[in-house]
Structures are given as C-alpha cells and as structure tokens.
Design a protein that fits this description.
The structure holds two protein chains of two kinds. By secondary structure, chain A is an alpha/beta fold. In chain A, helix 8 crosses helix 10 and helix 11 crosses helix 12. The radius of gyration of chain A is 17 Å and the shape is globular. In chain B, the strands form three sheets. Chain B has a five-stranded mixed β-sheet with strand order 5-6-7-9-8. Chain B has a two-stranded parallel sheet with strand order 1-2. Chain B has a two-stranded antiparallel ribbon with strand order 3-4. In chain B, strand 8 and strand 9 form a beta hairpin. In chain B, helix 2 packs across helix 3, helix 6 runs antiparallel to helix 7 and helix 10 runs parallel beside helix 11. The radius of gyration of chain B is 33 Å and the shape is elongated. The chains are: A alpha/beta, B alpha/beta. The interface between A and B is medium-sized, with 23 and 21 residues. Chain A: It holds the Pfam family GerE. Chain A: Keywords: DNA-binding, Phosphoprotein. Chain A: One of its GO terms (molecular function) is DNA binding. Chain A: InterPro entries: CheY-like_superfamily, NreC/VraR/RcsB-like_REC, Sig_transdc_resp-reg_C-effctor, Sig_transdc_resp-reg_receiver, Tscrpt_reg_LuxR_C, WalR-like.
C-alpha cells in the first residue's frame, strides 16, 4: 500500500517472526525471497508448513508473531488452522496473529477466514513491499483490508434493511463506511488519512472496528447476505 | 365431438418447428399425457388432427384409441419440445402480486367438449343397463391411473424446471393420494359388484397377506438396489464434473500456456494472456452455474457491465484493472451511458497511468444513485492544460454524463494519480 515507508523505518529496530503456511513450495520460496531477502525489512521467516497439521505443529512450536496463511490447504483449509490455533490467538502475551494470503478472492473464502479470526486478507498479487507493510500492520494489531475485501464488507453491511436488535453493534458507522469505501477505491491508509483529515492511526482504528464487527458473527445481515448468495 | 380438437389447432403447425427424429411425448401444451402433441411434432401434423384420429379410433374402433394412447403413454419417454415456458396455475402481475392464471380459451372449450362427450357416453351406458355395473368401476380405475401417471410425468418434468415450491409438492401428494384412492375404490367396487359383499373381507385378507409376503421377500433387495442405483448415479455425476473441468483446463489453460511460451520475450503480451486466462478461470471456478462460461450476450446488470468493460479494456491495453462492485441493479439507458463514460476513463487510465500499478475501478449502487470511480496511480494531469481539440475527457466522459443527467468529476488523487468520479441517478421506472 505505502512504499515500506514509516513502518519499515521503525522496523530497523524490531523484527517480526513469521510462519508461512502454503501448500505450494514454489510460492513459499517466492514469498520468502521477497520478504526475507534484506535486513531492511526485518521480517524473519521462522517456519513453513504445507498442510493443516504441519501448520498447527509449527505455529505452536515457534510461536511467531504473524502467520501468513493460505486459504486453500490440504486437511481442512485455512479456517481449520484458525480454529485449532484459537487459543494462541487470544493468548495474553505474544498473541499469534494471522494474515490470510490467498490467490482466491471469492467472497466465501474471504469472509470465512476473517470470521475465523484472521486479522486481514491480501491476495497473492500483492507486491513484496506491500506485504511487508501488511505484516507489520497486523503485528501491531491492526486490520489489513484489500480493496476487494472492503467491497465484500460494504456489500454485506449495505443493502439490507436494518434489523432492530443490536443496531449500534452491528451497523457500520458513517465514518467506517467512508473509510471502507476509500479502501475499496484503492486508497492506501495514508491517503485515506489525508483525504478525510484524520490521522493514519484513526484510519487503522476504524478498520479494526470494522473487522471486529465482522467477527462478531454478525448475526443478522452477514448470515442473510451469505445465505442469499448460497455461501453457507 | 370434433369440437374437442378444433380449438387447439391454432397452436399446432408452428409448435414444433425443430425436427425431432426421436419420438417424445411433449411436456408442454398437453391435455393428458402429451402423446398427441408429441406425435404431431414427430409427424409434422397439426396436433388437432392427431387428437381427432385418436378420438375417432376411440368412438368407432371399440376403444382402440384408448389402448393405443395408453401404450404410447407408457412406452414413449417424456421430452421437452413444443412450447416452452413453465405454466403454473398462478401468474405474476407486473405489480408483483400473484393471481390465478386465466385459463386460455382453448382449454375452456376442451373442457366443455369433454363434459359433453362424457354426458353422451353416460347416457349410452345407462341405456345399456346391466353393463353399467362394469363400466363405472372401470371408469374410476381409469381416472385414478391417469391421475397417477400424469403425476409421474410431472415429477420427471420437475427435473427441468426449478419452479417447484412447497405448495406444488403438497398439491402433488394430494393428487397422488386421490389417484390411489380412485383406483382402490374402483377395484373394490369391481369385486363387490361381481361377488357379494361377504366375500370382500376374504379377498382383502388374502390380498393383504400376499402383499406383506412380497414386501418381506423383495423389500431388502429392492432397498439395496435403489441405494446402489443412487450411489452409482452420484459417481457418474462426479465423473462428469471432473471430465468437464479437465476439458476446460485442457482447452483454455494449456492453450494459453503454449501461447505464453511462444511469446516469452514479449512481456506485455504474456501479461495480457495471463490476465485474460486468470479472469476466465476465476469466472469459471467461482461463478454460479451457467454464468461466466460464455459471455456472448449483452450484460443485463450494472455489475456485469462494469466487469465486462473492465475486462475488455484490460485485454486491449494489457494493464491490470481491479474491479470492486458493491450492490447491483439492472442496467438502464442512463447507466449504460455511465458505463460508457467509465470505459473512456478506464482507457485513459490504462494508457496514461498504467505504470503506477493496477487501475482501480469501484462501482457502488446506493439507493437510486450509482457511483463509479476509476483511479490510476500515474503522473496525473491537468484538465485545463489539455488542448481544446482533444475531446476525450471533455466529451466522452464529462459531456456524456451531463447529457444523461449525471455528474463527472476529475481530480488528482493524493500522492499522484488521477481519479474520475461518475455519479448518476437511476431512471425512475426501474425503482
């Protein structure tokens, strides 16, 4: 999104330990080459896994800060990894955070892993610098949305008539909607901040709020939306 | 009696224009089993003539017509043909309500004719006196059989049309029950009339015993056979799906890979091929059945139109375009103009701003307003600096939007790049 910019600058002093989960060895090699090639990035790949069982073992053993998780995996897919690593995600110290990295941008895959607890979703067309940027952002506890994902979320929350229950909880605020819309239009967080005259931190907190609402297993709209599209 | 056939003739000659080499019973526009219409389609005769022939055979051929008809019904498979379209008892009005479908004139006439014929028939039978004792049960049984057989046809037809609601199922069950009841009553009357009422109990017991015996003997075997059958069918469906995937992958993906190998030194061409193939494969994998495979016809909704336009520009200019669409609505004249303007913006973005990364296209339907943004990360440009004779932006985008009652805004996005925002109200009648 931004060229490694501010985050990588901070990254001089800090390192992120990353586990790569993907069943294609070639892709793992490629990602490793791109994000692990220089010290500048500060990303260290401490483990790799090719299926669900391996992933759970490696993640438990190495306790990385961020897991780059493929959605389609032998043994149950990324959602299964998320399910079995749930205790690690909610750990009080050094929680493991997941960033979904997939070639698929089908709605059911995206929504599935986000609701499973992933902190963001990027597609494999992402550039190396953007990926590193996303990893740092996820490590900070923020959510990373690709334009497509923002589109899905808007779609999910937009059209349906408002259910009366838990309205504040489930609905997106005007501001969140605005932020999502700009993400969907391809703006980087920094650009959004400039456009809306708010700080990047505020943008990130808006996006995190959206993510939280999404994970609340948004009882009404999301289910209805998914059912309408025969996703569940 | 010829009256019965006459009103249906207007449909006949043009009903089956496609020559069918194999004889099918027609599922549409039929009165009973679709035999007459199917035959008519097969022989290229007006359906009325065929019906008349059956009727004559029935009247003067000692019921030969009925026998023939029944044989056709049993042995000829039900097929699609004749008129298309699912006909239900209800029809949807333009304002969204449902009402009972008006029966067409032909059907009413046919019904009247049927009653008249039945009246004549009954009066004849009454005159015959004693034979009436056999005729009534036979008629009952016949009616029941017809009901149930047509039911089976409907069940088969339900495979073709998805419109089978819960009401329909209830109705079907009721119909099957009625048919069975009719047959049962008819047979009982037969037995009772022939013998005496006292024998009824004996007969019933014996029948029951035989039925139970048969069920006990053949039941397990029957169950296993149906299970095996459904399992086999499932396997066959899977194999078919796999073959289809394999065929598709073979055709398009391998073809593209070959092209890429051959054009390895031409970077833009390789990129174009790869993008086009990726898009097609995605369409094929993630789109619901029936869409995305052949996109020959014009798109009917905004989302489709935007995606199609982006795909075309992408193919033509070799610059990746990322499309995000939120919501959807049918395409009207204004929106078509908006999509055209968006295409112009995409082409510009691909031409002048393509080096900065993918072009982002975002479309959103919000209530009556449709918003489209096209954004690139190129060097950006100043609209006032463009010479007056260059009409691209001014006419194709801004002018076109204004002529159709919308607005277009051009602005330089922060951190370079250009963004074109197009806003349009949907036409009122599509509300």
């Amino acid at each position: 999104m931004t060229e490694a910019g501010e985050n990588a600058g901070v990254g001089e002093t800090r390192r992120v330990r990353v586990v790569l989960v993907d069943d294609h060895r070639m892709f793992r090699t490629g990602v490793q080459a791109e994000i692990g090639e220089t010290d500048r990035t500060g990303v260290e790949v401490v483990g790799e896994a090719a299926d669900v069982d391996q992933a759970v073992t490696v993640i438990t053993a190495t306790r990385p800060e961020v897991v780059l998780l493929d959605v389609h995996l032998p043994g149950g897919g990324g959602v299964e990894v998320l399910r079995r690593c749930a205790p690690l995600m909610s750990a009080a110290e050094n929680p493991v955070r997941f960033l979904a990295l997939s070639v698929s941008d089908a709605a059911e895959d995206v929504i599935g892993v986000i609701r499973g607890g992933a902190r963001g979703y990027v597609t494999k067309t992402i550039t190396g610098t953007d990926l590193v940027d996303s990893v740092f952002r996820v490590q900070d506890g923020d959510a990373v949305f690709s334009p497509r994902l923002a589109g899905f979320v808007l779609d999910a929350f937009a059209s349906t008539d408002a259910p009366p229950v838990d309205e504040d909880l489930d609905r997106l605020t005007q501001r969140e909607r605005e932020v999502l819309r700009l993400i969907a239009r391809g703006y980087a967080y920094k650009e959004i901040a400039k456009q809306l005259f708010i700080s990047v931190k505020t943008v990130e907190s808006h996006v995190s709020a959206v993510l939280r609402k999404l994970q609340l297993s948004n009882r009404h709209e999301l289910t209805r939306w998914a059912t309408a599209r025969r996703l569940v | 009696m010829p009256v019965a056939a006459a009103p249906r003739t207007p449909h006949a000659p043009d009903a089956d224009e496609v020559p069918q080499r194999k004889l099918y019973r027609s599922a549409d526009g039929r009165m009973l089993g679709g035999v007459a219409r199917g035959l008519a389609g097969h022989l290229g005769l007006p359906v009325g003539w065929v019906r008349l022939a059956f009727l004559l055979l029935f009247m003067w051929g000692d019921g030969l017509g009925v026998l023939l008809y029944a044989a056709f019904w049993v042995f000829v498979p039900l097929g699609v043909g004749g008129r298309t379209g699912h006909r239900s008892f209800f029809e949807n009005l333009p304002d969204g309500t449902r009402r009972l479908r008006k029966p067409d004139r032909g059907q009413i006439t046919a019904l009247i004719a049927l009653f008249v014929g039945a009246g004549i028939f009954i009066s004849k039978v009454q005159a015959g006196g004693a034979s009436g004792r056999y005729v009534w049960p036979t008629l009952l049984v016949g009616a029941g059989v017809v009901l149930v057989w047509r039911q089976a046809d409907n069940a088969r037809r339900a495979h073709w049309s998805t419109a089978a609601g819960r009401n329909g199922r209830l109705f079907q069950a009721a119909r099957a029950l009625a048919g069975v009841a009719l047959v049962g009553v008819g047979l009982t009357v037969f037995i009772v009339v022939r013998g005496s009422a006292a024998q009824l109990g004996n007969v019933l017991t014996a029948t029951l015993a035989v039925l139970v015996g048969v069920a006990l003997l053949a039941g397990p075997w029957l169950i296993r056979m149906t299970q095996d059958l459904s399992e086999e069918r499932l396997m066959r469906i899977r194999a078919q799906e796999r073959a289809e995937v394999a065929a598709h992958v073979h055709d398009s993906v391998l073809h593209t890979l070959t092209l890429i190998q051959r054009n390895a030194e031409d970077v833009s061409e390789v990129r174009r091929l790869a993008r086009a193939q990726e898009r097609e494969l995605r369409n094929w994998l993630y789109k619901p059945e029936g869409t995305g495979k052949d996109e020959a016809e014009e798109p009917a909704t905004l989302a489709e139109a935007v995606k199609k336009t982006a795909a075309e520009v992408e193919d033509h200019h070799g610059v990746p375009i990322e499309v995000v669409v939120v919501g959807d609505c049918p395409l009207d004249e204004r929106l078509a103009a908006q999509v055209q303007a968006a295409r112009e913006a995409m082409v510009n973005a691909a031409k002048y701003g393509g080096e900065g990364g993918p072009v982002q296209v975002y479309a959103e339907v919000e209530g009556q307003t449709v918003f489209v943004s096209v954004r690139d990360r190129g060097p950006g440009f100043d609209i006032d600096a463009v010479p007056g004779d260059r009409m691209g932006v001014r006419e194709s985008i801004i002018g076109r939007m204004q002529r159709n009652g919308g607005t277009a805004r051009l602005r330089s996005a922060p951190d370079g790049g250009t963004e074109v925002e197009l806003e349009m109200e949907r036409a009122a009648n599509t509300a």
